[in-house]
Amino acid sequence: MKTDTAARAAAQEPPIPFIIRHLYGLAIALVAIMVGFGALAEDTADDDDDGALAREFRYGTICTATARAAQRACRNEGREVFWTAIGNCANVSDPIAASECSDDAKADRRAEMALCGDRFDARRDLCFALGKDAYEPTFDPADFVDPMEIGVTVAANPYFPLEQGRRWVYAGDGETIVVTVRDETKLIGGVTCLVVNDRVEEDGAVVEDTEDWYAQDVLGNVWYCGEIARNYERVEGEAAAELVDVDGSWKAFRDYARPGIVMQAVPRMSDVYRQEFALREAEDAAQIVMLDGTATVAAASCHGTCLITREFTPVQPDVEEYKYYAPGIGLILEVDPEGNRVELVEFTR
């Protein structure tokens, strides 16, 4: 009789592993709930942006409204990555590792939200320089020259000469960069653009191979119309680098992207202008900072004749470069705020 009673008691007692599993599931659920409350609070705060966004579009501050819309898109992308990470954390069996996983996801989310804010501030600052209107430059094929005639019957832009066969070799920051003007063209928005190859190598291996598309108008301005950027990675044991992505690629008039001016025909002191515009992908801009600069590198020099620009992008708010252009040659030097230099080491006309 005593044996039967003990057996019934044992049958009614939940196994220890069963309890642990349920406690673990409860812990993970509590973590998700706590994390979720924080995320929902941020989502609710976003609702306040809707009114500001509507007012900006309504009252004509299109540039700032575009910046705010991009900020919202950035935040939403950050949320997608965050919740995917939380879902993955829920499948980690070790409670301590699961908690660390959730902490990492939260830290990454905070960093991404901060970056979204920094990008908004950078875009808004650019709007203050450019004005409040929509960016929709006139791009009429009748206003552009035949690119095959540049340097023949058409004078090249002295700071950005697109003469076929020209070749520039740069070195710095562990890279070798070879830029070549090809005798190839690409039609974009009805305008015939010239193809310029930009090839980057590290330790003899190609890490980026880009085709840039440029056009010169009848006034001498050089327009940037897009690029196809092929990014490579060296895989251990493989002789050749492997294509990993085409990030950074864009084309004017595809998905509402717009061309920009990469080099003015007549640079004007303090001018700020867009060099490209594919929202959240390609937003480089430039400012003229000096018309009579001086620089000396291995393959060229300029004494009081260099054009110096500050080039930056709201996509990477903490990145900017100062570029030195010598008349008749083009870009000869890039310097970042830390003093890192990329210099022209070889030039072929």
Question: Could you walk me through the main structural features you see in this protein, from its secondary elements to its overall organization?
Answer:
The chain is globular. Strand 5 (222-233) and strand 6 form a beta hairpin. It is built from 4 helices and 15 strands. It folds into 2 domains: 13-130; 141-348, YmcC-like fold, CATH 2.40.360. The mean pLDDT is 88. It has a 15-stranded antiparallel β-sheet that branches. Helix 2 (16-58) runs parallel beside helix 4 (95-130) and helix 3 packs antiparallel against helix 4. With 349 residues, the chain is α+β, with helices and mostly antiparallel strands. The longest helix is centred in the N-terminal third of the chain and has 43 residues, at 16-58. The chain has helices at 2-12, 16-58, 62-89, 95-130, and strands spanning 167-172, 175-188, 191-202, 205-216, 222-233, 242-245, 250-251, 258-263, 272-274, 276-277, 285-296, 301-312, 320-326, 330-335, 341-348.
